Structure formats: C-alpha cells, structure tokens
Amino acid sequence: MRILYIAASDPYANQRAQTLLDALLVAASFGAQVSLLFQGHGLLQLLPDQEAALIDRRSLSAQLDALPLFDVEAIYADRADAQRLHIDANSSRVDVQWLEPEAIASLIAAHDQVIRL
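The chain above was modelled as a monomer; its predicted structure follows.
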C-alpha cells in the first residue's frame, strides 16, 4: 500500500505537524511505502535552525532527520507554495524534490491513500 502524507500545517501552531510525522514513522516502521509532501504552511517545517524550546514545544527536527532511517526517501515540496511564502528552496533542512502543481496532482493519484494534516 502506498500512502502519501501531506504536511500542510504550521510546525508549532498546533499538534498536527507532530501527529502527521508520528503516523508516517509508524506506517514506515511497519513496512508501508510512504511518501511525504510539504505544502502551504507545512513548508515551514523545512526551515533550518528552529528553536522549538523557546515556545516550550518539541522540535520536529529529530523526526525529519530520522526519515532516511525509516526508508522514507520520497520527500516532496510544493514549489508554488514555497514561492508564495518566500521560502528559499535551497534552505531546506531535508533533501526534497520540488514539484509544480501538475506533478503534485500526479503524485496524489499514484497513491492508494492520502492523509493531510
């Protein structure tokens, strides 16, 4: 089963980003073929040097860094959203493949399940 997780939430506004990464890592640990797409404010998770402790939150950095250990290598990001949010594609803390809207539609269609938080 191919599962696409879409990270669309601000990393620290609520628990959605954390919950999505937790679910992705659990599925990957049980052998599911998982992919991860960052869209909208979820792209903020890719920015380096986040100081989650300053707002008394757990950093997502360790989980993002662990993705390759769980064989999660299909990691994508929405180029149009990054441009809209003025996020530099070269500043990503994780190696991602940047996609245009047409490619994102194909990516979604290629998966059996899609989970967006």
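The first helix runs from residue 16 to 29.
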